[in-house]
Amino acid sequence: MEHSLDPARPLSSAVGAIPEFRPVADNERIQALDVIRGFALIGIFFMNIEWFNRSFLDFGSGIPANVHGIDWLATYFVNFFVAGKFWTIFSLLFGMGFAVMLTRSEDTGRAFIKPYIRRIIALGIFGLLHTILLWPGDILFSYAFTAAGLLIILFGKWKWILASMAVLAGISFAPNMDSAWVLVGGTGFMGMIALFIRNEKIVSLFGKKLPLFSAIMLVVGVLMSFAAIASWVVPAMSDGRNPLTGGAVAFFTMAFCSAKFHQPAEARFWRAGALIYSLPFVIGVVFGVIAYQKPLSSVFNSPDAVKLAAEKMVIKNAEEAAEKLAKASGKPQPKKEEKKDDKKVVKTEAQKKIERDADNINRIQENQQKILKDVQILSTGSYADVVQHRLEEFLEGPFNAAGQAFGAIALFLIGVWFVRAKIITKAAEHLALFRQIALFGLPIGWGLSLFASSIAVSHTPGMSGDGWQLAQMLLNLGNLPTCLAYVSIIVLMVHSSSVFSKIQVLAPFGRMALTNYLMQSLIQASFFYGWGLGNFGMGRAQQLGFAIAVIGLQILFSHWWLGRFRYGPMEWVWRAITYWHIPALKIERLPYHHQTT
Asked: Which residues fall in a compositionally biased region of kind Basic and acidic residues (predicted)?
């Protein structure tokens, strides 16, 4: 695997053992990025505040059935024009930040890898503490994994990638560490992206010359297509029809696109990012259309499934009670007796469906119990109760957050391209491109959002045929063009000579993005949770009013703070860890007579 990010800009200088570089000076900052970051923080707040007033375990169910009037309108606005759009902007900005830091290291000939690893570790620690001490919807912990994945993509060598996967696979067998399999898959996934972006090897396959990555995707697609065909022919494999068929289509698509769009090399970043982000949702739309054709039904309408679910729950409760009793008495925990299906008995499709529905019923009911417990602790529990509850949730799957890296890495790659191609660093020279992105991206993104909302705005767990899957796939598909359009509009406003240029007032707010993001969580937890002021369950419209008020105060605070200090408090800590020295914080002002002489 080659190690050149851009044929014209080798990375050797970025990994050399030479003096580390220093934090970016004020006069080197990209003003548009700070404004975009501040704009993104507003959308993040609008989205997150709902989940300080509602259990995060209810995420993905849409507008609650008991919401009406102005609260319904506020929820609709956020769900279809904010949620998902600003998370993608934040991810895009992280990719841009990575590329800016890398580009500066190349230009100055100073080391990059060690400072950035420290930066990732610090980000992960911030995110971990944020998750446990304040809120489970944190994105920093996930971004730490994504940033590590970006290092794999740009600098990883195959022997280390495979060795890491082997070590992580071993860790996954430890008690309560099975979520490490997410890291195993993620590391392999990043390695394959690296193969596409950095490898120039051409191989012959089926009489055609293909890039190595394309050839691998084609072989996997062929093998998976055989398995998919078998799943439609062999009744015992019927459960794998959709994933195998969708997987085969995905690999064939990646093989075709990666071969056709392999050159130029510098375009691989945005092409890989766009494909990685969009392909799962495009396939999801297809399956969503198929599911939408089925009649409206609920798993709870099947008496056989409800009965079987109750029987399974009785057995599970008995096993858990026996485990607790054994643990309390210090005796060895009883081994669970795994009931194996008789291979001689061939189950009908109807029987399989009843079993699937029964398992789904139990999952839904268990989640509802967890939601009730979550709401009770958040609304009435002490701070110690909440922290203990969050810690227990985290330990159930400590690496589950890494799964979000799959989606975020696509935006990181597009962000890297924006910087490497100098689109954002020399934005004034590319205003025509930003106009085109806004002109096409906004109608496409908003159009998909409106279309999705016309299909379904909420979902009852266990329902099928309600169009929820299709609506969500369309909504997610529209997030990327909307995100790019929002970014483009902000860039155009920053470079405008009209009143719109006043949006630069958000720059200090964005410069202190980490501080303000964590401050938002602290304010919301203190105001809404039972251990604070106890306003849990505030109406959605009031939530947005509260958010606007807090954002206004944060903007004023950011201007005040940066008028006296070089960095926000958390930014200062982050830079100290990244560059491994204590940067000057306070702005030293010359005496008055020196300023006037």
From this structure: 334-349
45 Cβ contact partners less than 8 Å away, ≥ 6 residues apart:
520, 547, 550, 551
Task: Report how far apart, in Å, the C-alpha atoms of 597 and of each of 587, 588, 589, 590 are.
Answer: 20, 17, 14, 11
DSSP E strand boundaries for 460-591: 463-464
Question: Per-residue pLDDT averaged across 497-519, rounded?
Answer: 96
Following DSSP, what letter does each residue of 297-340 receive, concatenated? EEGGG-HHHHHHHHHHHHHHHHHHHHHHHHHHHTPPPPPP---P
pLDDT at site 126: 96
Angle among Cα 152, 154, 156 to the nearest 5 degrees reads: 40
The average confidence (pLDDT) of the chain is 88
Phi/psi for 314 (5° steps) reads -60, -45
Q: How far apart are CA 489 and CA 495, in angstroms?
A: 10
Structure confidence at residue 241 as a pLDDT band (50, 70, 90): confident
pLDDT for 104: 85
Buried b (16+ CB within 10 A) or exposed e, 517-535: bbbbbebbbebbbbbbeeb
Token duo for residue 139: 């994105």
Give the residue among 2, 24, 102 at the shortest CA–CA distance from 583: 24
Q: DSSP string of 65-114?
A: TT--HHHHHHHHHHHHHTTTHHHHHHHHHHHHHHHHHHHHHHHHT-B-HH
Q: How far apart are CA 56 and CA 53, in angstroms?
A: 9
Half-sphere exposure of 519 (CA within 13 A, CB side): 20
Cβ-count burial 386-397 (b if 16+ within 10 Å, e if not): beebbeebbeeb
204, amino acid identity: S
State the pLDDT confidence band at 15, using cuts at 50, 70 and 90. Answer: very low
For the whole prediction, is pTM greater than 0.85? Answer: yes
Residues 8-25: what's their mean pLDDT?
Answer: 45
